[in-house]
Amino acid sequence: MNVNQSAPPVPPFGQPQPVYTGYHQSSYGGQPGSTAPPTPYGAYNGPVPGYQQTPLPGVSRAPPSSEAPPASTAQAPCGQAAYGQFGQGDVQNGPSSTVQMQRFPGSQPFGSVPLAPVVSQPTVLQPYGPPPTSAQVTAQLAGMQIGGAVAPALPPVGLGYGPPTSLASASGSYPNSGLYGSYPQGQAPPLSQAQGHLGAQPPQRSAPPQASGFTSPASGGPRMPSMTGPLLPGQGFGGPSVSQPNHVSSPPPQALPPGTQMTGPPGPPPPMHSSQQPGYQLQQNGSFGPVRGPQPNYGSPYPGAPTFGSQPGPPQPLPPKRLDPDAIPSPIQVIEDDRNNRGSEPFVTGVRGQVPPLVTTNFLVKDQGNASPRYIRCTSYNIPCTSDMAKQAQVPLAAVIKPLARLPPEEASPYVVDHGESGPLRCNRCKAYMCPFMQFVEGGRRFQCCFCSCINDVPPQYFQHLDHTGKRVDAYDRPELSLGSYEFLATVDYCKNNKFPSPPAFIFMIDVSYNAIRSGLVRLLCEELKSLLDFLPREGGAEESAIRVGFVTYNKVLHFYNVKSSLAQPQMMVVSDVADMFVPLLDGFLVNVSESRAVITSLLDQIPEMFADTRETETVFAPVIQAGMEALKTLFQPQTGAYQTLAKECVAQGCCVDLFLFPNQYVDVATLSVVPQLTGGSVYKYACFQVENDQERFLSDLRRDVQKVVGFDAVMRVRTSTGIRAVDFFGAFYMSNTTDVELAGLDGDKTVTVEFKHDDRLNEESGALLQCALLYTSCAGQRRLRIHNLALNCCTQLADLYRNCETDTLINYMAKFAYRGVLNSPVKTVRDTLITQCAQILACYRKNCASPSSAGQLILPECMKLLPVYLNCVLKSDVLQPGAEVTTDDRAYVRQLVTSMDVAETNVFFYPRLLPLTKSPIESATEPPAVRASEERLSNGDIYLLENGLNLFLWVGASVQQGVVQSLFSVSSFSQITSGLSVLPVLDNPLSKKVRGLIDSLRAQRSRYMKLIVVKQEDKLEMLFKHFLVEDKSLSGGASYVDFLCHMHKEIRQLLS
Known about the structure:
This protein is an alpha/beta fold. It has 21 helices and 30 strands.
């Protein structure tokens, strides 16, 4: 049999199989059956599905361009029209095409005849239809070369999924028996994503269509609407040409020169099928689209033979066989699409279980009964009804809660409700607070708790009549009956020892040892404090802050200062016995700033002079915190019992510790940060501090730390409706029991992450409810309760769970889970656990929600298509895979930082933003569009900003134009730029103003000041910069995105077998 002949037609195995109604899946071409020979993958250039509007019959997309665009532009790859040509919500990861594919209606039972080898097949998308017509979307990743070698054939996928034996590791990223296991060298899985809503409307992640369960494949389904059109070039078969609405098309393949051989041993010819199979129409090459030239193991076409599906033309050289990064899911594309589709409309919280826009999208929130996603984000907004279903899916059920989140100016802060001496209305049984989900009965005289179903009496002063729908007539006048977030004024019953709290105080404890004095740090700090004390946090319209201040300096002994307003000069008292700490004065230690302004200024002038000649290098740490705590305890409330540890005592006294470290060597950050961590405080670290380079960063962090609004002496509890309960908590806090999260201090940047588990069956109709209640003391000393409520959907179909997940929140939870795990388990165990969990999540989707298909294809849920790339970033982070240059202190510092991060912060921390600066117009006020974090995206004629919330790099390409160098750095050539520069010169030209403005804008978005580092291409600092290009292989051994995707596919296949 001639090996050059085209593959014979096969049954339409890739035709739409009836699955969940309206749920987009991916379809596959022929799948090797038990009698099929081993099948190599086809050429790897199939597109990945995306949102696309219906092309008119016979109208082509953009023709393929002959010139590749620069890597740094926001342009799409060769042949793909730039983003924005398509309507809102259009995504195109693969190349576009002028060729339309044929599609044949009807659904057939599969497995009735032997199947031909898999042939590379373009993607076909279907819009939502009423009954089960969800087609499956595919793109064959095939014949791919990752490491420079030609891909060998995979074992036959139809003959069981056993792990491949003795295969080379993917591009040498890890050894054969290493952590990741191996994948055939140069092989990547075929990839497809199950799509969300397609059509003229932009995709809405809310209100999903109801899944209807599997329908028998043999039962058929409604036919696709067909549009007849002219025969396409290269089509060799008759029959009507059916154009497919919303399909993603691909470019015509390049013809190969006669006699060209693909590497690899010649394979057996494909088996012939009878063309008389009843009910099957002929298909071109066993797939729905043009073949991509000869396949591996097949000879080339004989001279003059037509290559089906290709355009006739002059012989062209073979395209390089390498995975096109644009054909795998792109974080940048997903972020961009969400911004375009969901950034213009406000997010209204009235509907239960809505998935909010991504954290990277700028949107306004209208509170109509559920808490804003700025306060609470969940890993899934549709949770399984049973624990068995949750175990099967392995998707963690968690919420990231930021109770005191700062809101944009356009959104109102939570309303404060004062119920007088009776205090807030609660359920008698479960103690949940009144909220919009409570049901009033018996004409409004009683209410049924939505959390525990207990019937409670309504107090006479709270009574109101109901309208014809059963709602109280005053529902919209009361925040607690109509809004998701609000505050109650707490009564004295909610205060410690039944006494209202005193106003809070800040005690500044300043290290005056030799190193701190010599580096200039003490003088810098004292100068800054003089002006900073005018900006202490205050309540809404208050003229001055109620917060009092005190000062302590220390080296190996402690010095307390009396700054009473009646004194002419401050007085110092020394405590040298640090083993038995006490506060030597009560009166005059904590003072009002405005009253004691002159004495405080005098003290701050004297401190640097007083210790200027010190030779004391030794410092104490624990006694310093103990002293501060004793001062607060003595001054604010009586001793309420002895606690075993310093941190526990601090929490008990409502003493929150923020720590600024300036180490020149190892200082054991892990131990020092325990107290800030358990008290809800922050740690700031400035290694090898130098005043000229680091003062702006330190002062900016200090200003923000002192000025931020803080809730003091806080206790938080999360209540849930029957069926689920909170079982685990992550963050900077202390817990003395299993339910109450105790925070000596809580600011607007800190989050508490809560994991939920089932303890009973949930009901689809009633859904699930969360209520977060935070009791805290405001900056003015007022005791308050802040309440956040959120209602979630419940589902009995796994597809509904996977359709309503949020990957960014999932990654936030997984990172915190792993970062806590390294304290008690080997790093390798923690990494393996993460990889296994991710593989189980995706394998469960593949098994239960995707149409049956070849095991050689990777199928990802639309909402989770970025899970592999983001998880790989977590695995490559300094905590889980430290390089040789990462110190133990650095790891401990990052670990405790991430523990309290919100979803937006972990998103940019693990996948940094890379912004090209010279591609967008200088007059444009918007941020330039980001590019993917890979070295491939860098053009040596451009300048890029990279930020991850902690670091900020300005990378300068070696071939950047001289005019740009002059405008930004005020030097005449690339070689004269100072590498490691941390401040850009202030120059009066549009480019300089734009770049400096962009840097300021990025810093304003982050909770910590990001110090700028200028990095020149090919400079030694470039290694540090490349560490943040997370899609590439890392120096410490982390896999590239492509390699990790291969590995995940192998893990999924092993689970499915």
